[in-house]
Amino acid sequence: MYYISTRGGSEKKTSARVIKQGLAEDGGLFVPESIPTVSKDFIKKLAEEDYAHRAADVLSLYLTDYTYDELLSAATDAYKEESFGKYAAPVKSLDKTHKVLELWHGPTCAFKDMALQIMPRLLSTALKKTGEKRTALILVATSGDTGKAALEGYKDVDGVKIMVFYPEDGVSDIQKLQMASQEGENVNVCAIKGNFDDAQTGVKQIFSDTNIAKELDEKGYFLSSANSINWGRLAPQIVYYFSAYCDLMNAGDITLGDEIDVCVPTGNFGNIFAAYLAKRMGLPVRRFICASNVNNVLTDFIKTGVYDKNRGFKTTVSPSMDILISSNLERLLSLATNGDDGQVKAWMENLKSTGKYEVSAGVKQKILETFWGGFCDDDDTLDEINRVFRETSYVMDTHTAVAKRVLNQYAAETGDTTKTVICSTASPFKFSDSVLTAIKGAPETGDAFTQLDELAETAQASIPKSLAELKTKPVIFRTTCEKDEMVDVVSQMLNLA
Questions:
Q1: Run of H or E including 357
Q2: What is the pLDDT at residue 351?
Q3: Where do runs of H (alpha helix) occur along 104-219?
Q4: For the chain, what are the domain ranges?
Q5: Pairwise CA distance, residues 279 & 274, whole Å
Q6: Which of 130, 193, 443, 458 is the most buried (most CB within 10 A)?
Q7: Amino acid 171: pLDDT
Q8: Mean pLDDT, residues 168-194
């Protein structure tokens, strides 16, 4: 299988080459030339396998220049019990209709681990397949979870250096500590004085600067990405939607062929787009509920066909969704226009120059047939955490609560009673301050580690080991820069100046 740019300005490439490269030369995102389809027998076979084999089976349909043994080895190593517990992505039941897909049992307690534990292994294989002798410089912009997950996944990986930028005041205390205390000889972290969109824009500008690329090449480096703009990050996310469906089958909640709905708390649109690809492959999914916080640019787009980022950026209790530029939406537009790269390029140029674009009536209708968008504010988010805990004793983090609240809106508006998988994207312990505020009115103290203990007692749950250990880890990274100084930070990291 070959991959092409959403904007048409790149030659066809193998999966190994696009995983190595990350972003297309024209600034577009790589998409497969065609989407593979699967049979019911394929899904039935997956239901009989463990998660590593499910991952290898699904990924083998996309990464066709990798051998099955290479993919199985990478998946087995990534999803081992030491990293994820006995099961990588368990499905828990809230009630007969609503099921929670817990994606945060990995080493950093966020759903990003599901992709970022296997992605470095895919990249290492890609470097060998392409004969690459230079060192890969992974640049990451994060709204909280991607940064730590990428740092943990790539630490001390041969042939790789990684630099993470995060908004100084746009992540939780726990998220900040996770990144600032990261160990590894090849890692670096910097806070920027700005928001996530500033960080993401800065990284994209570095990627598109030919002078920087030339300088890096002369010094023996090339740029790559661990964000979901990289196909090697997005493809593994497809797996857990198939896995959840199989687990529902095995639990007797559905039979093979039954349709489900999927509800995803959404920022950069990568997680929900992976679910959409699963549907296009043949997974029986009826509708996607796209849940946003008050940075509701995606809700407005789905309802109106107008994408407009010209609005005030708001900091919320669900910081990983505080995003106004949803990069992976470009991939959906590519599919919705049947690969009309000229049109996609024009929309992206409008977004860059004016901050907005409007799709055609036909594209809008295609999206509305499958997607439903809604949002909620912080008060609603906290209220939902409280309500679910009171009624079921289940503790949700702030992002999962956004999804559940929006799902309630969807059910009330449509009357849809289809069984629904809710993506739970982070451990509630990563946002203990907000979760305790929701359940008890306020935490007893402002100390992040005391809050972990308090939440454990309140929820009758164990603190994840990786979070408990933060208390004794020293802060290694304290660098802060202006948003227009990111290039300088990269140069200093690599001693290019």
A1: strand 356-358
A2: 97
A3: 113-116, 119-129, 145-154, 173-180, 196-208, 210-218
A4: 83-111+232-471
A5: 9
A6: 443
A7: 86
A8: 92
Architecture field, domain 83-111+232-471: 3-Layer(aba) Sandwich (3.40)
On whether the CB atoms of residues 89 and 52 are closer than 8 A, the answer is: no
User: Active-site residues: which are they?
Assistant: 112
Task: Give the whole-angstrom CA distance, residue 55 versus residue 34.
Answer: 19
CA 7/CA 342 separation, integer angstroms: 6
Residue 494's pLDDT band, with cuts at 50, 70 and 90, is confident
Per the CB < 8 A criterion, the answer to whether 111 and 145 are in contact is yes
In angstroms, the CA 31 to CA 344 distance is: 13
Tell whether pTM > 0.90.
yes
Report DSSP state, residue 110.
Answer: B
If you count them, how many residues does the chain have? Answer: 497
Q: pLDDT for 347-403, tens place per residue?
A: 999 999 999 999 999 999 999 999 999 999 999 999 999 999 999 999 999 999 999
Rounded CA gap, 234 and 352, in Å? Answer: 24
The phi, psi pair for 98, rounded to 5°, reads: -105, 120
Distances (CA, A) of 73 to 14, 66, 79, 192, 231: 20, 11, 10, 37, 19
pLDDT higher than threshold 80 for residue 143: no
